[in-house]
């Protein structure tokens, strides 16, 4: 099973420091890790830095990996593609980078299975430009998974999905992470989803790591007040799960 | 795949027609026998077909293919449907280079007076390309900046060309105007061979990067997330495009439409998967210019009109019919 450790990660855009000294313990594969924090906290930059798409100081250590850094896949937030490609073509494209032109029968079976598991087989031969924002987001998830990542960095993967789809996707991702032993980091704004689906949570604000650990221990009224400037309570619902109830802006 | 085969067959037809048509009237049977057994036909027929018409017909194909491929990859790397060898000022620079030779008698490469015009055009086109390339390597330069810079170059070179035309003698002015209209009539086997060789070198370079180039159309972030080195890919493609666009323009003058519309026709027919889009763009550009060459010979019997003038007249109706009937979007 793969694991990921961040050691003093930093990054800058020009002279502006975006990330500073992000260090974590070992983030284990097989489960979901939420990355939460206010807008412009540096979550996307952290993902790009981990994926090696931007340079900076610090070190990312991977253990238990077969493909090294090639096994890290970043799923960006932007889903606005204008390419004249069908959904199917775009997923073949994701799976075939650095490979030959010929697409084998096995590749197609894998893609069919992936589309089925995300319930988007009906979109396979639709053009990308015809899709709704939510449908595009599901296709983006399929593209990321088609690359068979060992570490998957998902930047707000459910922001355009309806509630049913959000639950479906997060549930699917949790099962898939456990099955593949994949480390999945998800930047997410819905803290109730984080509480329900993510074992660990990293809280980022102003480019720094504010807190990290088990989600149920991290998402507290105090953290919400200090990080998001809201008054909120964490209460246990009828199913015994912790739930954030927001009272007011602080 | 069937679409590509269909375009290739149509291209064979226009190539044959292009060689069959011309001021000297020969039957199709005569032309075919001259093609299949040149030693068995009259000397005059052999010379007309092999030394005059065939270089022109093949030049139409190689130039059309090169410009369309250059336009296709320019649209891909700049994510802009208006990109073509014209957008980045490559054609305008070539026109200015040609005018330097035709009006001022300036040879940018001393010692090649006979080839002064095409060499001047090529040198200026490469200067424009390398300028764009140099700027694009600077930190913080975006795709939008490159397009804006290209448009600024177009205006700059066109203004310089207009100034030269204003100062030119009547004879030189006529030569510049004719050159800027684009013409295949000065095609030779050497020019065909050079253009074809460049195409043969460049196509595998793009083919090798087919998946990466397709990924670029999903956006820089998405392509990078697929492991594509976006910056390096864009620079490499820009160099190949410069070579592909500048050579044909230096030989036949400015033929604009094919580099813009050839790729759009291919995109509507086969989509943007480069495994199909790449050959599709090559075939569409070749077919468009070959068909234009045929039309330029039959519009006014006995006269061959400048191909640059006819290209849009042939291409626009076909392009419009595709826009309104195709299921795939143009962009």
Structure keywords:
heterodimer; A: 250 residues; alpha/beta; six-stranded mixed beta sheet; three-stranded antiparallel beta sheet; B: 331 residues; mainly alpha; 76% helix
List the helices and strands and how they pair.
The complex is a heterodimer of chains A (250) and B (331).
Chain A: E1 3-7, E2 9-13, E3 16-22, E4 27-28, E5 32-36, H1 43-51, E6 59-63, E7 72-75, H2 87-96, H3 105-117, H4 133-146, E8 151-155, H5 163-180, E9 183-187, H6 191-197, E10 200-205, E11 208-214, H7 215-218, H8 221-228, E12 230-236, E13 242-249
Parallel strand pairs in A: 5-9, 5-10, 7-8, 8-9
Antiparallel strand pairs in A: 1-4, 1-6, 2-3, 10-11, 12-13
Chain B: H1 2-20, H2 28-36, H3 43-78, H4 90-104, H5 116-136, H6 143-167, H7 170-181, H8 189-208, H9 210-216, H10 220-225, H11 230-252, H12 257-270, H13 274-298, H14 307-325
Helix pairs in contact in B: 1-3, 1-13, 2-3, 3-8, 3-11, 3-12, 3-13, 4-5, 4-6, 4-7, 4-11, 5-6, 5-11, 8-11, 12-13, 12-14, 13-14
Would you kindly provide a written description of the structure presented here, covering whatever features stand out?
The complex is a heterodimer of chains A (250) and B (331). In chain A, the strands form 4 sheets. Chain A has a 6-stranded mixed β-sheet, with helices on both faces. Chain A has a 3-stranded antiparallel β-sheet with strand order 4-1-6, with no helix packed on it. With 250 residues, chain A is of the alpha/beta class. The mean pLDDT of chain A is 92. In chain A, strand 2 and strand 3 form a beta hairpin. Chain A has helices at 43-51, 87-96, 105-117, 133-146, 163-180, 191-197, 215-218, 221-228, and strands at 3-7, 9-13, 16-22, 27-28, 32-36, 59-63, 72-75, 151-155, 183-187, 200-205, 208-214, 230-236, 242-249. Chain A has 8 helices and 13 strands. Chain B is mostly helical. Chain B contains 14 helices and no strands. Chain B has helices spanning 2-20, 28-36, 43-78, 90-104, 116-136, 143-167, 170-181, 189-208, 210-216, 220-225, 230-252, 257-270, 274-298, 307-325. The longest helix of chain B is centred in the first third of the chain and has 36 residues, at 43-78. Chain B is globular. Chain B starts with a helix and ends in a 6-residue tail after the last helix. The interface between A and B is medium-sized, with 32 and 28 residues.
């Amino acid at each position: 099973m793969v694991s990921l450790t961040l050691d003093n990660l930093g990054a800058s855009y020009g002279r502006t420091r975006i990330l500073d000294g992000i260090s974590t313990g070992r983030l284990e594969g097989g489960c979901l890790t939420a990355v939460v924090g206010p807008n412009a906290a540096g979550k996307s930059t952290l993902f790009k830095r981990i994926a090696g798409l931007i340079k900076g100081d610090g070190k990312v250590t991977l253990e238990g990996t077969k493909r090294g850094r090639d096994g890290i896949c970043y799923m960006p937030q932007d889903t606005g593609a204008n390419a004249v490609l069908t959904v199917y073509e775009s997923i073949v494209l994701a799976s075939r980078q650095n490979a030959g032109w010929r697409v084998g029968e096995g590749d197609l079976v894998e893609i069919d299975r992936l589309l089925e598991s995300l319930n988007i087989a009906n979109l396979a031969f639709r053009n990308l430009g015809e899709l709704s924002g939510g449908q595009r987001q599901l296709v983006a998830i399929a593209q990321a998974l088609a690359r068979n990542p060992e570490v998957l960095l998902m930047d707000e993967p459910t922001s355009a999905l309806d509630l049913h789809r959000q639950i479906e996707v997060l549930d699917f991702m949790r099962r898939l992470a456990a099955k593949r032993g994949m480390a999945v980091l998800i930047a997410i704004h819905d803290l109730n989803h984080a509480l329900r689906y993510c074992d660990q949570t990293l809280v980022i604000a102003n480019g720094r790591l504010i807190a990290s650990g088990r989600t149920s221990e991290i998402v507290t009224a105090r953290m919400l007040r200090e990080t998001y400037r809201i008054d909120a309570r964490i209460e246990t619902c009828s199913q015994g799960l912790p739930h954030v109830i927001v009272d007011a802006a602080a | 795949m069937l679409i590509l085969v269909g375009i290739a067959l149509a291209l064979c037809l226009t190539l044959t027609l292009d060689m069959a048509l011309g001021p000297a009237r020969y039957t199709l049977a005569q032309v075919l026998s001259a093609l299949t057994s040149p030693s068995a036909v009259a000397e005059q027929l052999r010379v007309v077909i092999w030394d005059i018409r065939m270089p022109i017909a093949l030049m139409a194909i190689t130039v059309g293919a090169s410009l369309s491929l250059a336009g296709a990859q320019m649209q891909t790397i700049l994510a802009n449907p208006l990109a073509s060898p014209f957008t980045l000022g490559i054609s305008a620079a070539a026109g200015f280079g040609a005018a330097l030779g035709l009006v001022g008698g300036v040879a940018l490469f001393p010692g090649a007076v006979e080839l002064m015009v095409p060499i001047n055009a090529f040198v200026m086109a490469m200067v424009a390309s390398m300028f764009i390339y140099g700027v694009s390597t600077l930190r913080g330069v975006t795709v939008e900046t490159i397009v804006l810079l290209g448009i600024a170059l177009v205006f700059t070179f066109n203004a310089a060309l207009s100034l030269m035309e204003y100062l030119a003698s009547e004879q030189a002015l006529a030569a510049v105007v004719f050159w800027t209209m684009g013409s295949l009539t000065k095609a030779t086997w050497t020019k065909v061979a050079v253009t074809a060789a460049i195409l043969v070198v460049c196509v595998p370079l793009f083919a090798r990067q087919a998946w990466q180039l397709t990924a670029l159309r999903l956006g820089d972030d998405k392509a990078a997330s697929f492991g594509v080195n976006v910056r390096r890919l864009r620079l490499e493609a820009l160099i190949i495009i410069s070579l592909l666009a500048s050579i044909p323009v230096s030989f036949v003058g400015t033929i604009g439409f094919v580099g813009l519309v050839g790729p759009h026709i291919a995109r509507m027919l086969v989509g943007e998967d480069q495994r199909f889009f790449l050959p599709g763009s090559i075939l569409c550009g070749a077919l468009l210019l070959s068909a234009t060459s045929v039309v330029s010979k039959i519009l006014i019997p006995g006269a061959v009109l400048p191909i640059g003038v006819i290209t849009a007249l042939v291409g626009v109706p076909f392009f419009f019919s595709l826009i309104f009937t195709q299921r795939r979007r143009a962009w």
